Amino acid sequence: QVQLVESGGDSVEAGGSLRLSCTGSGYTSSTQCMAWFRQAPGKEREGVARLDYYSRSIYTDSVKGRFTVSRDSARNTLYLQMNSLKPEDTGMYYCAANRYACYSGSQILAPSAYNIWGQGTQVTVSS
After folding, report:
1. Integer Cα distance of 97 and 86 in angstroms
2. Are 35 and 47 in contact (CB under 8 A)?
């Protein structure tokens, strides 16, 4: 059974940094696309960053220049380095994967393009 487990969420002040981790089990290097999403209370789940099989990254505009997504394939772990955090970055952060396809266009950061999800880790940024 394929599982994703996130960790690293915390409460920080604005301007601070956090590194989230997402460790996968039950699969090998067949994963095509992995992504980070976040969801604030009362809001829809939002795609934050995606890393494809060739380690090409894509970010939503609001985090460009502040967040970096990376992967350690040997550890089956996806990371999200978050710097210069803002209160609007607050939310539950989820790791997601699609083992068979890496979509383009409007599907790049669409939740429907991913079929494996972790349970989430909470990030709270105070002003």
Report:
1. 26
2. yes
- Side chain identity at residue 29, one-letter code: S
Residue 80 near residue 68 (C-beta atoms within 8 A)? yes
Q: Which amino acid is at 69?
A: V
- pLDDT tens readout for residues 8-39: 999 999 999 999 999 988 765 556 799 999 99
Q: Residue 50 is which amino acid?
A: R
Tokens of 95: 């790791």
* Residue 107, CA distances (Å) to 69, 74, 123 in order: 18, 27, 25
Nearest-5° Cα angle at 38, 37 to 39: 135
